[in-house]
Amino acid sequence: MSAAKIKVLCVDDSALIRDLLTEIINSQPDMEVVAVAPDPIAARDLIKQHNPDVLTLDVEMPRMDGLDFLERLMRLRPMPVLMVSSLTQSGSEITLRALELGALDFVAKPSLGIRSGMMDYSNEIAEKLRAAARSRPRQARHKNTPPPAELKAPMVSSEKLIIIGASTGGTEAIRAVLEPLPANAPAILITQHMPGGFTRSFAERLDRLCRISVKEATDGERVLPGHAYIAPGDRHLTLARSGANYVARLNDGPPVNRHRPSVDVLFHSAADQAGKNAIGVILTGMGKDGAAGLLEMRQAGSATIAQDEQSCVVFGMPREAIAMGGAADVTALDEIPARLMSLIASSGRAQRV
């Protein structure tokens, strides 16, 4: 007996996008579009009628804004939602808000050649729908959520670094790690799987929320305590040395594990350049990117942490890292910031002995 197909409901005011999503999804052997809707009002009855496993949702629609609909949906009938977003500054900011409200992930609409562009994304769309169908629901963050209590940082040298990698579900997981950190936390380098055009908005949003400064990384800039540097959405980020200083380096090398930026690329460079001065953290995400790199960091003397299964939206990347032996600690997401400060404090004591 064959397994039941993943049931998908597509909500988009563009008939062309609805048709293309239907074509892409129905071409997969394990999923099917059970209904389409031109707006959220029409979608409400279709959700009750078809009980879909996953919803694809446009950001900007008539009759009811996609964000308003998403917020109500997550409150009344939580389900996996994949946003279909426009590649604009406004589109990226709305998409990041959707992720805060509980959307699992997003795909970007091509700005030109919509049919050929969407077809180029067909494998990515199918993979994200599969991940969504298997994902673990998480508590949405709302506008009035108070910030977490600030952690205290031990006195640390500028040599200490925190290196973070994430994918599906990672935008909110990264926020949960960074937001409690004190303004004098060690320097942080981050690779989050995200297309170009979205990472700048992601960094700006985190910068508004966090006590540390958060920015999109630029090539050759010095890596400083109290700052987090996010890989641009279409370039690899690596750690390098320039004399006595650490610097961020960007490159346009080929995708690794089908990703650019790749977590493995960042982790490999941290193992090589920082060794025991770094802490590696792998967060929620599908696939295996970062597993080999985290193992290399551990072998080079770095402390290493994997997010635990219970707190992951998608446990793929942490599971692979744990299976390979790369994770010295397996930790719930809300405990990772305090664990980082504890590791920094203990390394400082070890250096003074």
Give an overview of the whole structure.
It comes from Vreelandella arcis. Residues 155-347 form the CheB-type methylesterase domain. It holds the Pfam family Response_reg. The active site is at residues 167, 193, 289. This protein is an alpha/beta fold and 353 residues long. It has two domains: 6-134, 3-Layer(aba) Sandwich (Rossmann fold), CATH 3.40.50.2300; 161-352, Methylesterase CheB, C-terminal domain (Rossmann fold, 3-Layer(aba) Sandwich), CATH 3.40.50.180. 37% of the residues lie in helices and 22% in strands. The protein contains twelve helices and 14 strands. It has helices at residues 15-26, 40-50, 66-76, 89-100, 114-120, 122-134, 170-178, 199-209, 263-273, 291-299, 316-324, 336-352; strands at 6-11, 31-37, 54-58, 81-86, 105-109, 161-166, 187-192, 213-216, 227-230, 236-242, 245-251, 278-282, 303-307, 329-331. The strands form three sheets. A seven-stranded parallel sheet has the order 8-9-7-6-12-13-14, sandwiched between helices. Strands 2-1-3-4-5 form a five-stranded parallel sheet, sandwiched between helices. Helix 10 (291-299) runs parallel beside helix 11. The radius of gyration is 20 Å and the shape is elongated. The N and C termini lie far apart (64 Å). The relative contact order is 0.10. The mean pLDDT is 90.
SSE layout:
Layout: E1 6-11, H1 15-26, E2 31-37, H2 40-50, E3 54-58, H3 66-76, E4 81-86, H4 89-100, E5 105-109, H5 114-120, H6 122-134, E6 161-166, H7 170-178, E7 187-192, H8 199-209, E8 213-216, E9 227-230, E10 236-242, E11 245-251, H9 263-273, E12 278-282, H10 291-299, E13 303-307, H11 316-324, E14 329-331, H12 336-352
Parallel strand pairs: 1-2, 1-3, 3-4, 4-5, 6-7, 6-12, 7-9, 8-9, 12-13, 13-14
Antiparallel strand pairs: 10-11
